[in-house]
Amino acid sequence: MIVKKLGLLFLILCSGPLFSQWIAQNSGVTTSLNDVFCVTDNQVFVVGDAGVILKTTDGGTQWVQKPSGTTMNLSKVQFINANVGFALAATGTVFKTIDVGETWTSIDTGSNPTNVVYNGLSCIDENTFYVMSADSLRKTTNGGAAFETKLIFNSAQSLKGVQFLTAQIGYVAGSDYLFKTIDGGNNWTFLINSNSLQNFYFVNETVGIVYDGVNVLKTTDGGANFAVIGQNDETIIYDLFAVSEEVIWESTAELFLCNCSSYCLSKRTTSAPAANQLDKDCYQAGSLFLQFNALYFANSTTGFAVGTESYTGEFGPHYIKGAIYKNATGVTLENPNPVKTTDWVVFPNPASQQMTISFSENQYEPSIVEIADVLGNIIFTQNHDATPAVTIPVDTFAKGVYFLTVMQNNQKNTQKILIE
Predict the structure, then answer these.
(1) Nearest residue to 357 (alpha-carbon basis) of 279, 294, 281, 417
(2) CB 206 within 8 A of CB 224
(3) Is residue 47 within 8 Å of 35, Cβ to Cβ?
(4) 351 contacts: CB under 8 Å, gap ≥ 6
């Protein structure tokens, strides 16, 4: 029995955080992965630091690293058809493939890599595409033979995102604003000034979603008007992908001073009431760390998320690796209405003496707290009245991995915890 428990513990630690519908893939690399693009649900490309380019042709069962010819950090990847794709280096260099990602050649964009980081890429066709840094947007119409600067901004108003839907219609976001062009970037129209604009995504030329520091906004007329459709309570939004007008996937983080931040993959249904729009799969950071930098869905049910994963605890070997997770169901938690993990946090995690569950103000409800071991045995149960915080003594627990579940209003959410 001891051998069985130790083996299961090692399996849990080495397989990484547990997400209900997101399944870990074996990337085979130890560098951070920064972007992902699905040509089909089986053919997917991932790029990362140190020039890493990964390709799968079987939906993630096997990932093969392709020679990029560079050690530059790659920040973005896009394909315009089954054969032709582009990858953007943080230095501004573009890499192009015409043979389904088997080989890549570099394109000099005329960038100045000593000043800014390039993190935006939007491709229309093999000849026309845009590259974006924090202070400029550059365009080519001849496949990279020459580039023309279309926007220049100062450091106080840095560019954060670019998306072109056609050769003429595109959107650019900065720290506090959103702009639109209808003539290929020659002229730009100011759309909104939104406090702490975090991210945006357009489903088509007219329908788009914008996340600011407070609200989720939607336009159905190309940015002429925006309506508040939900609340944005995340500290950081790393990436967005809209499967449709009503379904948006998010890679987010909620940062806390207690060193117990939550990193989430979330599905937002915008047609639902604001309080019930989000279903989340979250992982609470500690000695086991996982952050998703980007996500992409091939269709309504199949998507991939990429980032970095590491472990620095005492219950297994330390590691760092490129993280790839796959969702083949199009849903998140099995419970369709889970208690959001950002409604409560548990800290410290890991712990040796006691843990505290701190509830957000809108979640002061009677609760049941359960802790189970890795075999699923319930070893701790407590009932609590509505309260801002609950303290749990753990000094009598054996060292290891446990699962803490909070149940409120017939809904529950589970977090992995470590006892040291």
Answers:
(1) 417
(2) no
(3) yes
(4) 394, 417, 418, 419, 420
- What is the pTM (predicted TM-score) of this model? 0.77
Q: Burial letters for 141-164: b for 16+ Cβ neighbours within 10 Å, e otherwise?
A: beebeebeebbebeeeeebbbbbb
The sheet with strand 367-372 has its strands ordered as 378-384, 367-372, 400-408, 411-419
Angstrom distance (rounded) from CA 268 to CA 332: 10
Q: Are strands 129-133 and 118-123 parallel, antiparallel or unpaired?
A: antiparallel
Residue 414 to residue 405: CA distance in whole angstroms: 4
- Regarding beta strands 215-219 and 53-56, do their DSSP bridges make them parallel or antiparallel, or are they unpaired? unpaired
Tens of pLDDT, residue by residue, the chain (420 residues): 333 334 434 334 444 454 557 888 999 999 999 999 999 999 999 999 999 999 999 999 999 999 999 999 999 999 999 999 999 999 999 999 999 999 999 999 987 766 678 989 999 999 999 999 988 899 999 999 999 999 887 655 678 899 999 999 999 998 788 999 999 999 999 998 876 788 899 999 999 999 887 788 999 999 999 998 887 766 688 899 999 999 999 998 876 655 567 788 989 888 877 667 878 787 766 677 889 999 999 999 999 999 999 888 776 688 899 999 999 988 764 333 334 444 678 888 788 899 998 887 656 788 889 898 766 678 999 998 888 888 999 999 998 878 888 888 766 677 778 888
Enumerate domains of the chain plus CATH numbers. 20-341 (2.130.10.10), 342-419 (2.60.40.3080)
User: What is the rounded end-to-end Cα distance, in angstroms, of the chain?
Assistant: 21
> Whose CA is closest to 89, among 63, 53, 123?
53
CA distance 416 to 374: 10
Which of 247, 191, 196 is closest to 219 using CA atoms? 191
